[in-house]
């Protein structure tokens, strides 16, 4: 099965004109400054809120913030939480913020924590996977990145004082991945779109080079208390990748330029919530992201016990 996309010529990569045509059809659908920034600022009473950059598309509209645990202690390992690398994935943003609001104070007893809740605020506002240049930030975590969102986050990571032991990158897999984003990607790159299947439920993506299966299993077990875990398709795969255990697939994070490869952490996972299920509410999706983080950090704490 294949489909054409309304922008560009099938079989030909987009040039600047097609990228501009794509950007011109985007619209603001929700406001970062009203829905996200106030939640970040409200956390400044408990934690250190720092601006680590801004997007040049509109620096005043799109400042980039992180939330850090106070009383930074170099004897503690560091936990990095990233959300909204794909701005349209709503629970990635609001799940990160809910974790900071409800759980971060507790885990700050054991870890230094840095939360970057909305890496791609333009994508958040326009409900898009790409940035305004039709570039996917989550394929752009490498030197001299063409994506400002990725480059700013990499600078933040470089500035962190201490060893990053854990990185949890919060994402969603949505029905629009097949109805809009993958067809657009095929059109942009001048290749045929081959339809895939959206998994019904939560899953995680580990790193092929450092899979940490017990860690992934702990995340899945924690999330299963909140929402259902995605089963494999008829090929025993999830989104075209072999399922390595219940609810888990692996990607080569660094090779693909994924946010999950932005650190040299020992324990890393990318969460994938399914918000379009009739079985879940928006808040349950946020809760699933929090549960993933709780499961991840509780597991790491058990590994550090004598």
Automatic annotation (TrEMBL):
Entry-linked Pfam families: Peptidase_M14 (PF00246)
Superkingdom classification of source: Bacteria
InterPro entries documented for this protein: Peptidase_M14
Gene3D superfamilies cross-referenced by the UniProt entry: Zn peptidases
Entries under PROSITE patterns matching the protein: PEPTIDASE_M14
Residue span, Peptidase M14 domain: 28-306
Stated family: Belongs to the peptidase M14 family.
Protein name: M14 family metallocarboxypeptidase
Species of the source: Vibrio japonicus
């Amino acid at each position: 099965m294949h489909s054409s996309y309304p922008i560009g010529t099938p079989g030909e990569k987009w040039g600047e004109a097609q990228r501009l045509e794509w950007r011109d059809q985007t619209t603001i659908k929700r406001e970062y400054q009203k829905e996200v920034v106030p939640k970040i600022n409200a956390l400044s009473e408990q934690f250190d809120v720092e601006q680590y950059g801004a997007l040049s598309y509109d620096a005043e509209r799109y400042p980039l913030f992180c939330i850090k645990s106070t009383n930074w202690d170099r004897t503690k390992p560091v936990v990095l939480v990233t959300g909204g690398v794909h701005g349209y994935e709503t629970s990635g943003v609001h799940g990160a913020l809910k974790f900071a609001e409800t759980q971060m104070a507790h885990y700050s007893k054991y870890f230094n924590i840095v939360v970057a809740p909305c890496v791609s605020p333009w994508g958040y506002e326009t409900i898009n996977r790409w940035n305004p240049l039709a570039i996917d930030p989550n394929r752009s975590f490498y030197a001299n990145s063409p994506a400002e969102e990725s480059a700013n986050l990499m600078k933040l990571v470089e500035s962190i004082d201490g060893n990053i032991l854990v990185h949890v990158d919060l994402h969603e897999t949505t029905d629009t991945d097949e109805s809009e984003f993958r067809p657009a990607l095929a059109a942009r790159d001048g290749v045929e779109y081959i339809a895939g299947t959206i998994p019904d439920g939560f899953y995680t993506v580990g790193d092929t080079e450092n899979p940490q299966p017990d860690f992934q299993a702990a995340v899945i077990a924690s999330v299963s208390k909140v929402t259902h875990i995605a089963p494999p398709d008829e090929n025993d795969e999830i989104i075209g990748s072999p399922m390595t255990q219940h609810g888990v697939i692996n990607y080569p994070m660094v090779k693909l330029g994924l946010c999950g490869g932005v650190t040299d952490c020992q324990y890393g996972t990318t969460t994938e919530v399914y918000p379009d299920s009739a079985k879940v509410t928006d808040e349950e999706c946020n809760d699933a992201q929090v549960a993933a983080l709780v499961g991840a950090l509780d597991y790491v704490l058990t590994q550090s016990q004598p």
